[in-house]
Amino acid sequence: MSVKQELLATIADLVQPGKGILAADESAPTIAKRFKAVGVESTEATRREYRSIIFSTPKLGTHVSGVILYEETLEQLSLDDVAIPKLLASQGIVPGIKVDQGKGPLVHSPGDEITYGLDGLGTRLEHYKSMGARFAKWRDVFHISDTLPSFQAIKSNAEVLARYAAVCQSMGIVPIVEPEVLIDGNHSIERAAEVSEDVLLEVFKALHRHRVDLETMVLKPSMVTPGKEAGKASPEQVAEATLSVFRRVVPAAVPGIFFLSGGQTPEESTENLNALNSMGFHPWELSFSYGRALQEPAQKAWAGKLDNADKAQAAMKKRARLNGLARSGSYSP
Ligand code: 13P
């Protein structure tokens, strides 16, 4: 199979009707925060137990086409001693891997951040691919204020995102391109729209500059919403604001836009996705690549006890099924 055929086959598997992606790639500090919220200490053993339970959810593959893993999980065995990528593949789910190495301050641009991880990326991808990963994820973050993000931050982050995507594709790995415009703050939905448009425009310019094949990538953006402290917009307002920005700056060649949940509640993120898919014609598949919004109820149900595995799997199945319905605008609360 040529590299292009390999990429197209992975895209066909990921972008299927009624399905989306489960983002279970929380880094060690992030999963520790999520576990703490449900009274569980994060250790190698608890992470293995929890992730093994949710990935073994019966028929998870009906609504989940891909799972993004963290490096540790890619190398772990399930509770039944099956390699995690193999377990996922047996569910008809494509294993993916988070490859950025976190973020830190962007020098001379106070308040902005830049994502790390380009050095040695090719070598790491080779290893991940040998372990079964067929797609990757890289996350940039953009803070919103009256003055942030700076043009410098937008441009530099777009550049690294595009370089990552180009390396992935050269190795037959589908890149998920994730420019996250953060929900934190008290900005208006109009300000979020303005920043999202600026960011996405620069991201697609950089992707073009680096000759990234738009047909074999997935975009993972934030929905356009008001800041968390500014109150809520209705699902119709979110869908309208999001689609008007995306129509301007996301080329129709991109096969799938898989939104992150970014701090929306599980119910909100399903309602918003449903509204997006109910709003007339759009040239891309609009789906989910949720972390918190898919997993919060399952983590609560598990609460660190193996005896709760059935309850955790039922909670996971429920959110996956409802988001699967929202994929075609067929969800009703
Ligand atoms: P959330 O849906 O919790 O935002 O996580 C998605 C993700 O992968 C962030 O990088």
List the topology elements.
Elements: H1 3-14, E1 20-24, H2 28-37, H3 44-55, E2 64-69, H4 71-74, H5 84-90, E3 94-98, E4 103-105, E5 113-115, H6 121-130, E6 135-142, H7 151-170, E7 174-181, H8 189-209, E8 218-219, H9 235-249, E9 256-259, H10 266-278, E10 285-290, H11 292-302, H12 309-326
Parallel strand pairs: 1-2, 1-10, 2-3, 3-6, 6-7, 7-8, 8-9, 9-10
Antiparallel strand pairs: 4-5
Helix pairs in contact: 7-8, 8-9, 9-10, 10-11, 10-12, 11-12
The structure holds 1,3-dihydroxyacetonephosphate (13P).
The site of 1,3-dihydroxyacetonephosphate (13P) has 11 residues, from helix 11.
Explain what this protein looks like in three dimensions.
With 333 residues, this protein is α/β, with parallel strands linked by helices. The chain is built from 12 helices and 10 strands. The strands form 2 sheets. An 8-stranded parallel barrel has the order 1-2-3-6-7-8-9-10, surrounded by 7 helices. The chain has a two-stranded antiparallel ribbon with strand order 4-5. Strand 7 (174-181), helix 8 and strand 8 form a beta-alpha-beta unit. Helix 10 (266-278) runs antiparallel to helix 11 and helix 11 (292-302) packs antiparallel against helix 12 (309-326). The termini are far apart. 49% of the residues are buried. Bound molecules: 1,3-dihydroxyacetonephosphate.
